[in-house]
Design brief:
Belongs to the ATP-dependent AMP-binding enzyme family. GO terms for molecular function: ATP binding; propionate-CoA ligase activity. InterPro entries: ACAS_N (IPR032387), AMP-bd_C (IPR025110), AMP-bd_C_sf (IPR045851), AMP-binding_CS (IPR020845), AMP-dep_synth/lig_dom (IPR000873), ANL_N_sf (IPR042099), Propion_PrpE (IPR012694). It comes from Pseudoxanthomonas composti. This protein has about 625 residues and is an alpha/beta fold. The chain folds into two domains: about 475 residues, 3-Layer(aba) Sandwich (Rossmann fold); about 130 residues, ANL, C-terminal domain (GMP Synthetase, Chain A, domain 3, 2-Layer Sandwich), CATH 3.30.300.30. The chain has 20 helices and 32 strands. The strands form nine sheets. An eight-stranded mixed β-sheet has the order 12-11-8-6-7-14-15-25, sandwiched between helices. Strands 5-4-17-16-18-19-20 form a seven-stranded mixed β-sheet, sandwiched between helices. The radius of gyration is 24 Å and the shape is globular. The mean pLDDT is about 95. Adenosine-5'-triphosphate binds next to strand 26 and strand 27. Magnesium ion binds next to loops.
Length: about 625
């Protein structure tokens, strides 16, 4: 059966389709009803079924693959590599769960996890899943304020934290941030469990609050903790969106639907069978980290690589060296990361034996064609873009090489994933637009398994944020897209980022795409700036592959960018101004903060900066604006 036929069945007969897919995971008690949809837009999958994410990710594999590597945690920050088999993972997760029990964590309690990419972060997540506690992983690079916000939202029984993170060899002690976050938060957790890596010189402990993991771990020894069987729709975890368009939203995920989506996607999208190796370069704090560093590969019986460190340490070939060493089959990264590598010699890739590597998947941001071509030429493997959101939890638009490999069309993440009924509609009329016409990308509810259940403790915000944009009940992705005559969908940017130039609607992404086509450009952000005559005009902020302060070179680059845009998109898209900067402001998850650039360019306030990565990059923009294009 080809894609079209299976996809049609997945959306036209969802109950029959998902009942079949559900067999891929272990159910302690099978679901009594596949889909319940009597309170739209809320839906429940596999109602009455009892299962557990940890059991599916760990225990279930012991019979066949106890001695196979489950997790390899590599750190080029601490220079420690930890290889963990499924049997060892089982032991560590049980021990961690026993420690959680000692600290009185019960089913339904929330646990905030504030750790970098280290093995214990995975043990902690799975231990929570085992006992039915709801984890909320907070990206280790976030500072105290973000941590406090997420603590208050989750109201956790426990905070689990590393003693320190490390970035580019610089140790970042977490303890001061934990103390500050607990002081700021209204619902400071009663207990804090510190997993010490020996990076931070021991700070005084807060008596009665702080516990040391190693001490408790030694005390529980080889304790076994029984799996808590959860109803499919109980919450498994909370995870926040990146905050690119405003205040992050706390996505609530379920148990059964998510497990089924993970199992299916490992097979159909990532084509990674039990025993094979997957390497996702994400941080565990992001959606990709949850789904394709932890739950997906482990539920799939694969080996998962977890990497802590810069992609350039010890050199720009580190990721490919790891692919070679561990025989990685499926690699998953982001366009942002590849653009970083693109500044370095392609030989860092080519010198490695990548014969086991079958695919490179990229997601998280638009994959511009020049970057796609560059990495494709370097690897000679399919480079597969896929589009999703923290909310969806797994790809919404993708190719399905494990099922039916459609040809890659650069610039497009492909087709609706199984179970997703998607269309591109006119913002005003709500009508489906014709081929190659722009509109808003929407999902027809009920949302498929794996997608969010709601916004944590805020059903109303769930309805308002996603389902109240059109007359018809539709989930708005808030992204702007076109679909070509063959059904490939292209993302043009956020609906907020659409620029209206003299009545022409242009996606920021279209213009960024063509600017990136100019050879000297490393990365570009395009924003719309108010203009008296045209309503709005496109303005470019770009970094160059080779940094130069030479005015002549910069103005030649700016001219080149203008020309290439006019050649591709016509004079209407001609950038009114081009600013060359040394860095672009991004979120900690690597997404361009266009709204902040735009606000500065219009003399406004840059808005919520809680997820801003590098404050210097914003300063760069400020400086560029005052210096002039
Ligand atoms: P927030 O919702 O808080 O504003 P965010 O949307 O950036 O933040 P994420 O869930 O991390 O939070 O990102 C999802 C968004 O990333 C998508 O809505 C889309 O705009 C973009 N995106 C993800 N994958 C792709 C892709 N393959 N191509 C184009 N855009 C993508
Ligand atoms: Mg979003």
């Amino acid at each position: 059966m080809g894609y079209e036929e299976i996809h049609r069945r997945s959306v036209e007969e969802p109950e029959a389709f998902w009942a079949e897919e559900a067999k891929a995971i272990h159910w302690h008690r099978p679901p009594q009803q596949i889909l319940e949809y009597d309170k739209p837009p809320f839906r429940r999958w596999f109602v009455g079924g009892l299962t557990n994410l940890c059991y599916n990710a760990v225990d279930r594999h012991l019979a066949e693959r106890a001695d196979q590597l489950a997790l390899v945690a590599i750190s080029t920050e601490t220079n420690v590599t930890r290889e963990v088999t499924y049997a060892q993972l089982h032991a560590e997760v049980n021990a961690f769960a026993a420690v959680l029990k000692r600290l009185d964590v019960q089913r339904g309690d929330r646990v905030v996890i504030y750790m970098p990419n280290m093995a214990e972060a995975v043990f902690a997540m799975l231990a929570c899943a085992r006992i039915g506690a709801v984890h909320s992983v907070v990206f280790g690079g976030f500072a105290a304020h973000n941590l406090a916000l997420r603590i208050d939202d989750a109201q956790p029984k426990l905070l689990i934290a590393a003693d320190a993170g490390s970035r580019g060899g610089k140790v970042i002690p977490y303890k001061p941030m934990i103390d500050a976050a607990c002081a700021e938060a209204e619902y400071a957790p009663p207990r804090v469990l510190i997993v010490s890596r020996g990076l931070d010189a021991a700070e005084p402990k807060v008596a009665g609050r702080d516990e040391d993991y190693a001490t408790l771990r030694a005390e529980v020894g080889d304790a076994q903790v029984p799996v808590e069987w959860l109803e499919s729709n109980e919450p498994s975890y909370l995870l926040y969106t990146s905050g690119t368009t405003g205040k992050p939203k706390g996505v609530q995920r379920d148990v059964g639907g998510y497990a089924v989506a993970m199992a299916q996607s490992m097979r159909t999208i990532f084509d990674c069978a039990p025993g094979q190796v997957m390497f996702s370069t994400s941080d565990v704090g992001w959606a990709v980290g949850h789904s394709y560093n932890v739950y997906g590969p482990l539920i799939g019986g694969c080996t998962s690589l977890l990497y802590e460190g810069l992609p350039l340490t010890p050199d720009a070939g580190i990721w490919w060296a790891l692919c070679e060493q561990y025989g990685v089959r499926t690699m998953f990264s982001s366009p942002t990361a590849i653009r970083v590598l693109k500044k370095h010699d392609v030989d860092f890739i080519k010198r490695h034996d990548l014969s086991e590597l079958k695919y490179l998947f990229l997601a998280g941001e638009p994959l511009d064609e020049p970057t796609a071509h560059w990495i494709n030429d370097a690897l000679h493997k399919p480079v597969i873009d896929n589009y999703w959101q923290t909310e969806t939890g797994w790809p919404a638009l993708c190719l399905l090489p494990g099922l039916d490999m459609k040809p890659v069309r650069f610039g497009s993440p492909g087709f609706a994933n199984l179970g997703y009924r998607m269309k591109v509609i006119d913002e005003a009329t709500g009508q489906t637009v014709g081929p190659n016409q722009k509109g808003v990308l929407v999902i027809e509810p009920p949302l498929p398994p794996g997608c969010m259940s709601t916004i944590w403790r805020d059903d109303q915000r769930f309805v308002d944020s996603y389902f109240s944009h059109f007359k018809e009940l539709l989930y708005s992705s808030l992204d702007w897209a076109i679909r070509d005559e063959d059904g490939y969908t292209f993302i043009l940017g956020r609906t907020d980022d659409v620029i209206n130039v003299a009545g022409h609607r242009l996606g920021t992404r279209e213009i960024e795409e063509s600017v990136s086509g100019y050879g000297a450009v490393a990365e570009a952000a395009v924003i719309g700036v108010a203009d008296e005559v045209k309503g709005q005009v496109p303005v470019v902020f770009a970094t160059l592959r080779q940094v130069t302060e030479e005015t002549q070179a910069r103005s030649a680059a700016a001219d080149g960018m203008r020309k290439i845009v006019v050649d591709h998109l016509g004079a209407v898209a001609r950038p009114a101004r081009v600013y060359i900067v040394n860095a672009l402001p991004k979120t900690r998850s690597g997404k361009l903060l266009r709204r902040s650039i735009q606000a500065l360019a219009q003399g406004g306030d840059p808005g919520d900066l809680s997820t801003l990565d590098d404050p210097n990059a914003l300063e760069e923009v400020r400086r560029a604006l005052s210096r002039g294009p």
